[in-house]
Specification:
The protein has one helix at about 10, and strands at about 15-20, 30, 35-50, 55-60, 70, 75-80, 90-95, 100, 110-115, 130-135, 135-150. It contains one helix and eleven strands; from the N terminus they run H-E-E-E-E-E-E-E-E-E-E-E. It has a six-stranded antiparallel β-sheet. Strands 2, 4, 5, 8 and 10 form a five-stranded antiparallel β-sheet that branches.
Length: about 160
């Protein structure tokens, strides 16, 4: 167990999945979960006016190149659809493994999806994931992956962006 003065990056591994952008042909990066038990996906968004929210889904693959990609089932997530007013995340139910982000004008949004390695098709060598973002109008979206806990104790955690 790490001490209270540890950096977050010493406890897990943060990886940029998608820099802030209005998704149109943008695709977040795949990451490998080989060295980790879980991945928390944080999706941040800033709405302008006359917004079309991004549809969010999760994908799994056998390599970070997107080899053999298929849907990754998940049914719950957490969200805060007004980060300027509060900091609490509330659970919500996801239907058909996808949801659309809130489209209220001028709001700051945060979504959290946690993927456990047991959710992957490990029997068929699926160990890479990515968030899937749909096209938007007047919404800036970013994706951050946080891998935790590391399966193997190392002073420098293994990379998650190569196989």
């Amino acid at each position: 167990m790490m001490g209270p003065n540890a950096f977050l990056s010493e406890i897990g591994k943060p990886v940029m999945g998608l820099a802030p952008v209005a998704p149109s042909s943008s695709t977040p990066a795949y990451i490998s979960m080989k060295g980790y038990n879980k991945c928390t996906v944080l999706i941040l968004a800033l709405n302008g006016t006359t917004v079309t929210g991004s549809a969010i889904a999760m994908k799994q693959a056998t390599a970070v190149a997107g080899t053999g990609v298929k849907a990754l089932a998940f049914s719950t997530a957490r969200r805060n659809i007004d980060c300027a007013a509060a900091d609490a995340l509330a659970d919500f139910t996801v239907s058909s493994n996808t949801f659309t982000m809130d489209a209220t004008n001028s709001k700051q949004l945060m979504y959290e999806i946690t993927i456990d390695e047991s959710m992957l098709d490990l029997a068929n060598s699926f160990d890479c994931i990515r968030a899937d973002t749909g096209n938007v109008t007047n919404q800036t979206v970013s994706v951050m992956y946080y891998l935790w806990p590391a399966k193997y104790g190392k002073s420098t955690p293994p990379t998650a962006v190569v196989d």
